[in-house]
Amino acid sequence: MLEALKGQEVSVNFLDGSSVRGGVLEEIDERFVKYRTEYQVLYIPITSIRAVAVETKERERPRVGFGQ
């Protein structure tokens, strides 16, 4: 299933609640995922991943202040 995301920019959410964003899935095998960001290369064990998210559309930021 992760093979379909190879080469795409994704966010990876881990079982402990942390996450990484803005990187690309480069390589995938049965035990590890190679994830490259601008600053680092991560080799992530498949067993530590909770979810992988693909950003398909940029969210609108809520307006700050009072409407008139």
From TrEMBL:
Name assigned to this protein: DUF2642 domain-containing protein
Superkingdom per UniProt: Bacteria
Biological source species: Paenibacillus graminis
